[in-house]
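Chapter review. Work through the record for Phosphate regulon transcriptional regulatory protein PhoB before attempting the end-of-chapter questions.
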Amino acid sequence: MTRTVLIIEDNPGIGELVRMQVADLGMQAVLIPRGDTGLDRFREGGIDLVILDLMLPGMDGLSVCREIRSSPGYVPVLMLTAKSTELDRVLGLEMGADDYLTKPFSVAELAARIKALFRRVDALDSRAPEPAQEEEVVVDGLRIDPVRRRVFVDDQEVELTAREFELLWHFARHRGRVFSRAQLLDAVWGYNHEGYEHTVNTHINRLRNKIEADPANPRFVQTVWGVGYRFMD
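Structure tokens for Phosphate regulon transcriptional regulatory protein PhoB:
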């Protein structure tokens, strides 16, 4: 089945360059020059990868990425940015981007990143268990339903983003096991963003704010100082 790549880029030259490269890889390309209309197209469905500029009219790339990550399911996001500061890269990753390229970039590098993202998606799909084989986890008032991807705390449903759910489910399936930040990036994000382990901290803080009665003294996702995190045993 032909994959469809949504390109949200307002620079006509760069947008056309990316579109041509996607087409050369045998994929269908959809090019949209605005953040808001690009997000509308994503929500229509059928998108397998989003290539997203950081600076866009209508809605900036970070906001678009945040909305994509709050949607059901998982679609990889490759962020393009003219900025090269560490803060910009970290913000992109913390909003849910899977990878980024700093402009100017080579066509060969763009193709390599696209192929790598799809290899990671295929690898995650191949090792994912059948939903029907997964059982609910219920512990101390927290209930996690992996089939419907729903979470309840004291019978009240909690809305999690796709990445937050994947992080919580990974913890719950390995109760008591300690994971480093690098291990969590590899297991939940699909590969390790070297040097950006602190994006895990951000997601865990958001997760705690949603599922813990007292996020400062968490019951479920616990910190193991100097090592990483674990789910309550």
